[in-house]
Amino acid sequence: MEKQRFRRVLLKLSGEAMVGESSYGIDPAVVERLAKQIKGVTNQGVEIAIVIGGGNIWRGIAASSQGMDRATADYMGMVATVLNALALQDALEKQTIQTRVMTAIEMHEVAEPYIRRRAIRHMEKGRAVILAAGTGNPYFTTDTAAALRALELDADVLLMAKNRVDGVYSSDPNSDSTARRYRRISHQEAIERDLKVMDMSALALLRDNALPIIVFDVSHESGIEHASSGEPVGTLVTTGAAEFF
Question: pTM surpassing 0.85?
Answer without folding.
Answer: yes
